[in-house]
Amino acid sequence: MPLIMEDGIDVDDLFGEPNSLELGLPTASPIKGLAQCLDEMRLSGCCQKIAWSRMGCIASISPDGIRVIIRYLQCRPSDGKWVLGEESSLAPVLEAHNGTQLAHLSWNETGSELAVVDCSGRVSIYSISIALNSITGLRQASFDSGDDGSQVVGMMWLNSQRYVHAFHQAAKVNGRWAYSPFRRRPVGPFHPANKGALICVTRAGQIKLIYQNPDSKWAELPAELKNTGYSDRLLTHASMTATQVHISWNPPQWEPAQGKLPGQFPIPTFRLIHCKVDMPNNILNVNRGPDHHDQSLPFLNSVYSLTRLEIMPGQFDSLAGSTANPWILAVLSKPLHAMHDYPDQQGPPSVIVRWHLESAPQILHPKFDEVTSKKSNAQAKPKMELRRLENVYCDKYIVSVDLVEHGTVLAVSHDDSSITCYDTRTMAVLNGLDDSSAVTCLAQAGFQYPLETSGLHIAFSPNACVAVTLDSDGHMQLRAMEHSFGSTEGLYDENNLSAAIAALTLAFSRGCGVDYNTDDILMVALGQLSLEAQTTFISEVYRALPVNCNFTAEQDKLMSHPYIPRCLSLQAGLGFKGRLKRRNLSSAVPWASLQLRHASVLFAYFFQYNKGGQTESHDPDVLRMVLGNTKWTLDFSHFLLSEIFDMADEFEDVFDDSEAFTQKLKNSSSLPLLILLSSMSRAFLRFICRGLRGVHAGFASANPASLLGDSRIYYTEICQTLESSPVRIDVYEKFLAGVDSAVKHAYQGAGFGDAERPGPEKELLVNARIPPVLTTAVATLLRQTVPALKSEINRMAIYLGDYSWLGFGNDRRTALYRRHREVDILKKCPLRPPLPLGNDGRVAPVKKRRCARCCEVSGDTNLPRSLLSFKMIAKLGLLRSCLCGGMWVLETDTGVLGIGTASANGNGNRIT
């Protein structure tokens, strides 16, 4: 039977009368709030209701418009899932702006400072202090006069003057991905003192530079812009003008050593050069030349309004770090009512218009050549021109335009929640893998944002693989990128999977190079990659950064290598399944290495302090941290020895059977053995021994006047802890030297030189497996090194030690301790549980900080009290972040985790 519409049967013949199917169905209603959103963007370029800082803090304007809400990505301690953290209100904002409606939020380049702008044009500035939800005020909004003319219509933070590591792309060479790092120059203008500074343009045509002086006080520099050609002289986003703004500082360079007197601070001045004006009535017309003057747009462009205007920084043209000229992007949208007012001339809802800023030679009239010049070689200075580029037409309303992935991608968000990614060089849409041998960004490799609940305000995570939107009710919704990996019938396409892993590696490496928060990448990797693919991802990260896992020779690089803690933290985070669950070996090895690194750096800094001979008194807070880490490192070393001694006894019956020994070693899963065999963690242990010797020697040489009160008590306890240890420091160093010798001879016996050693070292660290080449090293360790130390070690004391507080054991006592107690990850001391308030189960709330990534805690909820303690914490990089690199979050302990009562005895590490 033929289909009913075949053979040219007209639909009118079926129903007898024309237009019978015009049912008059209403068109889809616009999204709630879209008209208001378009109107706000038309009037001002400062209407960002939600912003995500590069440190990981999410700020949004509350539904009532007078408060700022703070949230963040957080790993949930109960199950290790990544979610949005609890919201908290930024209390100082309400007071600073006196309940005025807020209009705009903007983070600075590093993500540590937030500017809040209200509808009257007043600007207040805040800074992240000790946690993502602990934000303090830097600049009060009362400094500004609030009126209609002062409304801010444009704002930009000045960049910080620092060189960073960047990555061009990932290219497949001989079947392996090769990553191309280069050193990227900063793009000015800068504050010479590297303090906060931002530029604002007001509706009345005034430009202001708001900047912070070296004494932390704020100042501003105003200037008047020239008339834009409109009678009311008011700037909106419907008017365009190009003005070159030159900021000169006197002096142009400033060093802290120059002093902090106000007369010596850098003073800025403006120089404004008016360039060109483009009127909205012809902004859609592209000059196509005289041959195409009759080709006009097929729709009425006078109804379009300018709703977005951005200056996009130029991309880096080469690996040498040279930067291309910036370009200007404008978005023009028509109001919703225009869809009905001009039904016969329906154009696209939004149009992207672009200009490229170029340098062109000055062309003078030929008559000037006849003028005699005193300078025979006089040349006209080049001028800056705006070259018009092709328009991009969109069939949806554009509500946001963001430059993401370090300038490689232009993310355009639409009113229906869809996100289109464009290549910033060509404006080609990135919707999948075109070239399987080169990867430049996540979108080009096939990662896409799924359609979610519509939201008119959006912010992207530091690495642009996660986004948050505000829905029509002002509630925050989380969206993460997804990838299909070209799967068919449950099978992945290997090329797509490989490219996706390379794109994640590239994004993570770029984030590390510029010191961005990388929790978003960790979240996507956990949600999208299988366990096997996660291992490949980790291996690629070690190669890309690059981190040579062999530290048998260059051990000093461990202390200063910036990417080692980043790699260890990523690997530890991928294996975290909840604070009450024991980590698998591939996660426990980097987690232990991170804590060993923390102790190594702490002891090294403390040793330098003692060696410097400062006249200040020893700080009790610093000594308390040293004491806790001394106890932790000693117990950890005893834990390692206890396990290795037990292994020596267990393997004794197969020492003479190499095949049986190898098979038994394959079936074993010993964290202490992996820690000792890995050159990285073994080097940290050696640094710790050196530091402990220095701490002990520093007590004898310390000035008695510098040890008073609590300082003497803490330092005395440190020395008593070291002296009462069942294993002397020199004996432990002898043990580590024996392990070094066994590993060295194993490599030499197998013919492994420096070029071959990174392979087995990476196998130990990434896969938590003992490579075959080190089997003989294990045999030597258990058969020779351990028996030689038995006479110098109190094995009974080691065997009876309680190591449950370390959290690495697989016994019931460790699980019980983990359930009832928490240990300060920085000071390495157990935290007291909340005190009961009565017999009804209520407890006194206790504030603490929890890491958003590893879920460990710190009992310090305020800035360090003394200058010495502050310097130490700042030098360790632990003011805002945990030792794993995750950011701190303030929380209140209500006793939910403390199921039973716990008490400390002995050294304060045990529970009953």
Characterise this structure.
With 912 residues, this protein is an alpha+beta fold. It is 29% helix and 22% strand. It contains 21 helices and 32 strands. Helix 5 (494-513) crosses helix 7 (531-544), helix 9 (564-574) runs antiparallel to helix 10 and helix 11 (620-650) crosses helix 18. The N and C termini lie far apart (84 Å). Residues 784-889 form the Mediator complex subunit 16 C-terminal domain.
Straight-line N-to-C gap: 84 Å
Large-scale geometry: globular
Radius of gyration: 32 Å
Task: Note the beta-strand portion.
Answer: 15-25%
Mean pLDDT: 85
Q: How many beta-strand runs?
A: 32
Write a concise synopsis of the structure shown.
The chain is α+β, with helices and mostly antiparallel strands.
Give short descriptive properties of this protein.
32 strands; 912 residues; 5-stranded antiparallel beta sheet; disordered C terminus; alpha+beta
Draw up the topology in text.
Layout: H1 11-15, H2 34-43, E1 50-52, E2 57-61, E3 68-75, E4 82-84, E5 88-89, H3 91-96, E6 102-107, E7 113-118, E8 123-131, E9 134-139, E10 152-157, E11 164-173, E12 176-184, E13 197-202, E14 206-212, E15 218-224, E16 240-250, E17 267-278, E18 305-312, E19 327-333, H4 338-341, E20 350-360, E21 383-388, E22 392-394, E23 398-404, E24 409-414, E25 419-423, E26 438-439, E27 457-460, E28 466-470, E29 476-480, H5 494-513, H6 519-528, H7 531-544, H8 557-560, H9 564-574, H10 585-612, H11 620-650, H12 658-667, H13 671-677, H14 679-701, H15 710-723, H16 729-749, H17 758-766, H18 775-789, H19 795-800, H20 812-820, E30 846-851, E31 857-858, H21 867-876, E32 888-893
Antiparallel strand pairs: 1-2, 2-3, 3-4, 3-5, 6-7, 7-8, 8-9, 10-13, 11-12, 11-26, 13-14, 14-15, 16-17, 18-19, 19-20, 20-21, 20-22, 23-24, 24-25, 27-28, 28-29, 30-31, 30-32
